[in-house]
Amino acid sequence: MSTIDHPATIETMLSGRRPGYSLPQGFYLRSDVFEADLRLLESRWICAGHVSEVAESGDWITAELGAESAIVARGQDGVLRALANVCRHRGSRVCLEPKGSGALLTCPYHAWTFHLDGRLRSAREMPSGFDPAAHGLKPLSLKVIEGLIFVSFGDAPPHLGEAEAAVAAMMRLYDWAGARIAARRTYRVAANWKLVMENYHECYHCAPSHPEFSVLHALARPNNRTLSNEPDPETGLADFEAWTAAADGFETARVMRSALADGALTGSVDGQLLAPPMGPGGARRDGLCVFGELGLLSAFLAYADYGLIYRFIPRGVLDSEMEVIWLVAGSAEAGRDYDPERLTWLWDVTSQEDKLIIERNQAGVASRAYEPGPFSLMEPGTQAYVERYLGELANALMAGFGTGTKGGTADGL
Ligand code: FES
Ligand SMILES: [Fe+2]
Questions:
Q1: In this structure, how many other beta carbons lie within 10 angstroms of the beta carbon of residue 50?
Q2: CATH code of the domain covering residue 316
Q3: Is 34 within a domain?
Q4: What pTM did the predictor assign?
């Protein structure tokens, strides 16, 4: 849909939006809003994967967002770096696959080769005076938090500060740094990314749409949340809800403990454990799960015996991906310690249900009969997410965005 149908500027739509209601139609349909969204999202931190995927020198993975693509590679020196996946000859993508391994990165177009740290190694038939040192792959910002790899495409990514401390405490409790990936699946959703995120942040839909999830999780019931900033005496884990706008230069994060149904220990058919406990939090088997988030597109869920990384990837105005990565203890072996089918059952069925309801939401939102509707008492998370998005979009528009690549920080973890 174009601005012909919605002639207001984004700024006018922002100022005219009714608080406590879902967004005006143009936010979900307009390509200019989507472009502005991408500029905002590119400036933030996104989860690119887990360190177990790049454990050895030469291993690399890629992560995409809009027009941007990052290579996260472990160099011969053992250091993990993020590099812009853009060849310095004429701009081709260098790495075309989600992951790979090798001593060099070779551009498929004219075969320039790069070292794993980004330095240009060879370029054929270049004129005299050509300076290889000035044509390395550009560095991007990278941060590893308890085994999770975060990258940013922004010139000046928000500080991690308290956000990092909050999610690190959650992940440390379940030893995510020592985890391994048991499974990963991508769910393609024919909807605007904001409908995907709005859906993820409320459990108003859980009872009608997720019967399997709802029998196990207190979150599916009204008035279930008892947040406390007092650390749990046994785990030291405090609930944390910052939702701090990035305008002050800090990334947002959220950590929330939530109860499972009586007797349930994890997210499984019968609530019984599916895999060996992870870390000291898993060993306690206390019937809790912990939801976490960092930035605008990365979410985490820790059970006693397995974990989930949710990577939300906007692909087009009406095209989004939800990638789900299942983590288990590093020593757990498929077949011996867990059954991959049983491990992935709950969040596979839940994600398929989410795809369906989000696509129906998009279909209705595209109609001329759509108008923003009021949030319920069970949608505070969605309301907070929407307000945060709007505030940050307004700030970003005022500031003129300002993303790009820069000399980033390499993290040796
Ligand atoms: S664009 Fe990469 S070698 Fe030409
Ligand atoms: Fe859902």
A1: 24
A2: 3.90.380.10
A3: no
A4: 0.92
